[in-house]
Amino acid sequence: MADSARPVGLNGETQTSNNISTVTAFSVAAEIGDFSRFPSAPSFMSYLGLVPSEDSSGGSVSRGRITRTGNGHVRALLVEAAWHHARRWSPLLPTEVAARRGIGPEAARVAAEANRRLHAKSERLRRRKMAPSKANVAVARELAGFVWALAVCEG
User: Fold this and answer.
1) Is 155 exposed, middle or buried (0-12, 13-18, 19+ CB in 10 A)?
2) What whole-number distance in Å separates Cα of residue 123 and Cα of residue 150?
């Protein structure tokens, strides 16, 4: 059934990220609907409430916690999925990703880059001794950008 009822904009590409399962991909697609309504990845991240709040006055800018506005269910799904990047990672070449999932070369390239960058970000934040949950939300924010990129990817 999963193959015959693929969500619009998520034709298997999102599942190429090593942390997005079929159920998560379908849930994200059902909650978001049409990804083309977001002109950019930052607007998608903002919709999910994964961007920092900002208090600015004059030349002073102070950033705080994430805004937590927008779709809480998708935000929670991506935060949970982001925990997979705190684990040990074994890289796959884009050609291997494409062969395993039957997707286009551009989507495979984006997915391979996503996996590499998300794991590197998780490791970098862990080395800086950032609180694990805070680091995970930062990884989830970047994951949201890659989900958007894969959803609007043409091939």
Assistant:
1) exposed
2) 23
- 29 membership: H or E segment, kind and range: helix 22-32
In single-letter form, the type of residue at position 59 comes to G
pTM of the model: 0.79
Residue 31 backbone dihedrals phi, psi, to 5 degrees: -75, -40
Other CB atoms within 10 Å distance of the CB of residue 58:
5
> What backbone phi and psi angles, to 5 degrees, belong to 90?
-120, 120
Residue with tokens 């609180």: 131
Query: Residue 48 and residue 78: Cα distance in Å, rounded?
Result: 10
Measured from the Cβ of residue 57, the count of other Cβ atoms closer than 10 Å reads 7
Segment 55-86, tens digit of pLDDT: 889 889 988 889 898 899 999 999 999 998 88
